[in-house]
């Protein structure tokens, strides 16, 4: 990732990709206290646009506020910086990664006097869970690692440190040949994927776990809005893993994963064992919106 051409926005300036480095004693590297975003820009009928830029930027600021990291830039500056990175790298569609981290002035967990830095990179990134997965569904396994408890980590924040939990879960199931992990909350109810929110379909109704220990996904919110607009009933509630075993359809949502159907959980076939009809409809509608083909959701697109 580090050895390529292009530019990264780093503390207010575009710097050549290979020079966007930081010291090994940077605080975030040692203690995991940093916040970030995952954003996508898509090629639309009217040029490249960033999907839900405002909401991603709002979440980045909320994450920073939860961790008491003082943002050195305002939202308008960081929204323009995200556009600038896409333009500078001449990207038509891409993934954008803003990250906020502490400097290297001091070690130890007293982080109050440290400088706060912001970097924004962007690069092309295709289907996160594979093109085949998008069309046919992926194989998922419940991880033995539990999702964060609300008072062990801050579940509303997209923070650097919280991803060790995701990586442990993914490592475990990938070792057994699965595409992605499903994590249960500390009480044993279904929470989310390692990097995605979960939806299930049962008798034509859509269900998704309540947000207690999940990230408040922006794709999740987009699908909820879309589903309601399509006249589908959406219920947020606690879900058990055997409800998923017996559902008609299941899918993951996320900026990287977009809308990825799930065809199997814990060696149980879900529904028809492939992408189900409601998943197909929502996935197609999602891709129409991000491509600028549905005027109703035009305000979700920030042109670069
Ligand atoms: N949960 C987790 C743990 C994630 O990492 C992500 C990806 N950001 C999501 C859910 C989905 O969030 P979003 O749709 O905003 O990308």
Summarize the structure.
This protein is α+β, with helices and mostly antiparallel strands and 304 residues long. It has helices spanning 27-31, 53-66, 75-88, 131-136, 163-175, 218-229, 241-245, 277-290, and strands at residues 7-10, 13-16, 34-36, 39-44, 47-51, 94-102, 116-123, 138-142, 180-184, 190-193, 197-202, 205-208, 234-236, 249-254, 258-265, 268-269, 301-303. 4'-deoxy-4'-aminopyridoxal-5'-phosphate is lined by residues 38, 158, 166, 192, 195-197, 214-215, 217-220, 253-255.
**Tally the helices: what do you get?**
8
Give the radius of gyration.
Answer: 19 Å
- Beta-strand percent range: 25-35%
Oligomer: single chain
CATH-level-2 architecture of the largest domain: Alpha-Beta Barrel
Estimate the helix proportion, in percent. Answer: 25-40%
What is the H/E order?
EEHEEEHHEEHEHEEEEHEHEEEHE
The CA-CA distance between the termini, in Å, is 24 Å
Q: Report the structural category.
A: alpha+beta
> What CATH first level of the largest domain would be assigned?
Alpha Beta
Average pLDDT: 97
CATH superfamily of the largest domain: D-amino Acid Aminotransferase, subunit A, domain 2
Characterize the largest beta sheet: strand count, sense, and whether it forms a barrel. Answer: 9 strands, mixed
Extended strand count: 17
Give the cofactors and ligands.
Answer: 4'-deoxy-4'-aminopyridoxal-5'-phosphate
How many distinct folded domains?
Answer: 2
């Amino acid at each position: 990732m580090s050895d390529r051409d292009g530019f990264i926005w780093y503390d207010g300036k575009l710097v050549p990709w290979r020079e966007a480095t930081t010291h090994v004693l940077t605080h975030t590297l040692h203690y995991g206290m940093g916040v970030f975003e995952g954003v996508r820009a898509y090629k639309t009928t009217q040029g490249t646009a960033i999907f839900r830029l405002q909401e991603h930027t709002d979440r980045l600021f909320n994450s920073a506020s939860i961790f008491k990291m003082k943002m050195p830039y305002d939202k308008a500056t960081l929204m323009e910086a995200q556009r600038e990175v896409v333009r500078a790298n001449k990207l038509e569609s891409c993934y954008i990664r803003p990250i906020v981290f502490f400097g290297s002035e001091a070690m130890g967990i007293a982080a109050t006097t440290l400088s706060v830095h912001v970097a924004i990179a962007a690069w092309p990134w295709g289907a996160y869970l594979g093109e085949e997965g998008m069309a046919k569904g992926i194989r998922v396994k419940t991880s033995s690692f539990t999702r964060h408890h609300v008072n062990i980590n801050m579940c509303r924040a997209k923070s650097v440190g919280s991803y060790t939990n995701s990586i442990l879960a993914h490592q475990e199931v990938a070792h057994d040949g699965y595409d992605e992990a499903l994590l249960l909350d500390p009480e044993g109810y279904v929470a989310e994927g390692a990097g995605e929110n979960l939806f299930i379909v049962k008798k034509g109704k859509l269900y998704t776990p309540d947000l207690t220990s999940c990230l408040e996904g922006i794709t999740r919110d987009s699908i909820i809005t879309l589903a309601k607009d399509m006249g589908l009933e959406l219920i947020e509630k606690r879900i058990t893993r055997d409800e998923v075993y017996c559902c008609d359809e299941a899918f993951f949502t996320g900026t990287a994963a977009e809308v990825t159907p799930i065809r199997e959980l814990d060696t149980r076939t879900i529904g028809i064992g492939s992408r189900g009809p409601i998943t197909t409809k929502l996935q197609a509608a999602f891709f129409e919106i991000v491509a600028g083909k549905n005027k109703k959701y035009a305000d979700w697109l920030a042109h670069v």
